[in-house]
Amino acid sequence: MAEILGNITISLVHVAIPLTIILLFALVAIWGERKIAGFIQDRLGPYRVGGWHGWAQSIADLLKLLQKEDIIPKDANRFLFKFAPFMMFTASFAAFAVIPFSSAYIGSMINIGVFYLLAVTSILTLSVIMAGWASNNKWSLLGGMRGAAQLISYEVPTIASVLMVIVVSGSLNLMTVTEMQSGNDVLGFLPNWFIFQNPFLIIGFVIFFISILAESHRVPFDLPESESELVAGYQTEYSGMRWAMFMLAEYADMLLLSLLGATLFFGGWNSPFGDFMAGPVWGFFWFMLKGLLLVFVMMWIRWTLPRYRVDHLMHICWNVLIPLAFVNLVLVALWEVIF
Amino acid sequence: MEQVINEIDKRQMVINMGPQHPSTHGVLRLEVVLEGEIVNEVRPNIGYLHRCFEKYAEEVGDYSKVIPYTDRMDYVSAMNQEHGYVVAVERMLEIEVPERVEYIRVIVAELQRIASHLLGIGAFGLDLGAFTPFLYCFIEREKVLDIFEKTTGARLLYNYMAPGGLMRDVHEDFKSDTAEFVKTFRPKIKELNDLLSYNKIFIDRTANVGVLPVKVALNYGASGPVLRGSGMEWDLRKNDPYSIYDRFDFEIPVGKGELGTLGDCWDRYIVRVREMEQSLRIIEQALDGLPEEGDVFEGIPKRVRPKAGEIYTRTETPRGELGYYIISDKSGGPFRVKARAPSFVHLSLLPSISKGAMIADLVAIVGSIDIVLGEVDR
After folding, report:
1. B40 within domain boundaries
2. Where does the pLDDT of residue B5 fall: very low under 50, low under 70, confident under 90, or very high at 90 and above?
């Protein structure tokens, strides 16, 4: 009995740690996104709530959303409508289990980590269709269908670019993948990160980054929720906390894919200075820093570029990224065999 | 037969775009028949902003009291609307307008044209998902509105021009403020071009989309940037000069099909960008020619009472040919005022150029013809 209780406690801790990280990240990132948008657009962004640079803006927004009336359209499918946002969040949240946050902490040390992550995040597609269909709104339906087509298509280049790293590392366990990138031996001073180890992995990273932009439907690929065309896409009928769950899921997804990118290409929790500033705590710091830098680039792109059209999007995926990704995969493998 | 119709119905979907939709530029309702993402048919429904401009003009019984209402037609280019109306009334009265008044009118009209184009361009970018250029445009538009606020006291609806003169003289710093704006605005156009006009995604979205052949444009009676975007060199400031526009040296930018087909959305867009540069040129010349002394009130007649008759005058607003057809019955107010609004004509173009486009293109096309619903409904 005591053993079972102990196991449950440990499991709860493993649930609580990523959840805390996600929630804190969402609060900071929403505020940060608005600040970044403000600076890019030559204005200040939130400045009042909480005093210092409006730091409490996201908390105030959260409190406002909590108080909102929960509106469900009359002819909506109530169960699916209520379920979709939570399922979406669960999908991104569950994937955090295999992310190695530092050398001392990983939620679940399983050998098929990357495979598990890609499989679990595929559920996102389902929740987008669910939300789009259950709302009984034509705009939602269009958004849901767009979302489904986009997420399924871009999974292919994402997986292909992840495969490139797997070819080099030979392991699906993200902890092992990270450990393989320790040390500073490339050209004598560069860290052993995969992006420096193999020149073709730089192309791989570009493909990966474009694909995760589409996977987390950020601009210029935010077609499922494009506000100027589809009102708000699959989120049109959602309000209050359910809508907030979608937002939370979107930010969680952004963080997840950025952290995955940091793990696969930028050495995860490894310090860029070898043994200097290394260790479990510094590891967590470096890992989050790398992830947040990628998140920042995503925000930067969002506030700079216009949006692609749905047929251009498919063209980029099937005619450009997928062939390029597979050719590159072969080249990465060849490089590994030769050197 | 019934079965066939049902089959068609199943594949098609009628969707309401507006009146509450983020990119209808006001309260416009488009009934869109969609097949997947492809637009099969568009039916614009208008009238949500109807405010009885023409009936009001008949009833009010005073030529001057119509002016505030002309502001409210196209509320983003109020100065140009007033300008067209006062030119019409002056031609009926056959009065001379003082030199200084004419120069000030041209300067404010061109400033207003820049402000209006900035809104049109920014909103077009916003329709395509580019949020930042919109705010860059608004920062510049704000500077124009500040100049107007200092002069007229209002930021949107000015009620500034009067038949034969102006409601008040410009403020002391008007000349330096405007010169300063012209100086700082030129580099911003280049910035806008870098950020939006020549952006790869932007070009992909707008080139070869919503192609309007010049023949169709002429048949529908299009004018302004929409007609010029199709390659026709037609600008009333040159082709039928009013006020003192014949004194200034400027070019008429036309679409050339640089990045796609002639008359596509990108051509219409770039015409607006280049027109802003030409407006800056006109403002510079007008600032040089602006007489220092002169009373802006002396030309205003005590009583506005034209001879019986009728007149049609047309002026170039940022959106195209704005015509006022006024009938006078010798009383103090117009017997009839008919406004020929360019936005209304351009909206009627929409069904013919958006057939077969995708729904995202439809948004781009509506943005590229730059309609203002206040002017469509009047």
Report:
1. no
2. low
Task: State whether B128 and A304 contact (CB < 8 Å).
Answer: no
What residue of B is the nearest CA neighbor of A145?
B36
Which of B128, B140, B209 to mutate: most A Cβ within 10 Å?
A: B128
Q: Do B129 and A310 touch (CB under 8 A)?
A: no
Does A187 score more than 80 pLDDT? no
Interface of A with B (CB under 8 A): 37, 40-43, 138-139, 142, 146, 219-220, 222, 226-231, 303-312
B125 contacts in A (CB within 8 Å)? 306
Chain A residues touching B191 at Cβ < 8 A: none
B4: confidence class by pLDDT, cuts 50, 70, 90: low
* Gap from A41 CA to chain B (nearest CA, Å): 6
Instruction: Give contacts of A142 with chain B, Cβ < 8 Å.
Output: 15, 34, 37, 359
Residue of A nearest to B362 (CA): A229
Q: Give the distance, in angstroms, between the CA of residue B336 and the centroid of all CA atoms in the same chain.
A: 23
CB contact under 8 A, A229 and B23: yes
pTM over 0.90: no
Of all residues in chain B, the percent with pLDDT exceeding 90 is 10
Summarised one tens digit per residue, pLDDT across range B292-330 is 877 777 878 888 888 888 889 999 999 889 989 999 888
ipTM of this complex prediction, to 2 decimal places: 0.81
Per-residue pLDDT at A107 exceeds 80 = no
Query: Is 80 exceeded by the pLDDT of residue A224?
Result: no
Residues from chain A contacting residue B22 (CB–CB below 8 Å):
227-228, 231
- B373 in a structural domain: no
Q: Is the pLDDT of residue A211 over 80?
A: yes
How much is the mean pLDDT over chain A?
Answer: 86
Residues B326 and B88: beta-carbon distance below 8 Å: yes
pLDDT digits (tens, 9 = 90+) for B198-209: 888 889 888 888
CATH of the domain at B135: 1.10.645.10
Range of the domain at B147: 48-352
A148-181 per-position pLDDT tens digit? 888 888 889 999 999 888 888 888 888 888 888 8
Q: Residue B299 falls within a domain, yes or no?
A: yes
- How close is the nearest chain A Cα to the Cα of B299, in Å? 44
pLDDT at A327: 92
Cβ-defined contact of A231 to B135 (cutoff 8 Å): no
pLDDT interval class at B153 (50, 70, 90): confident
Average pLDDT over residues A177-206: 81
Contact A138 B13 (CB under 8 A): yes
| CB-CB under 8 Å, A305 with B130 | yes
- State how many domains chain B has: 1
CB–CB contact B130 A306 (8 Å):
yes
**Is residue B17 in some structural domain?**
no
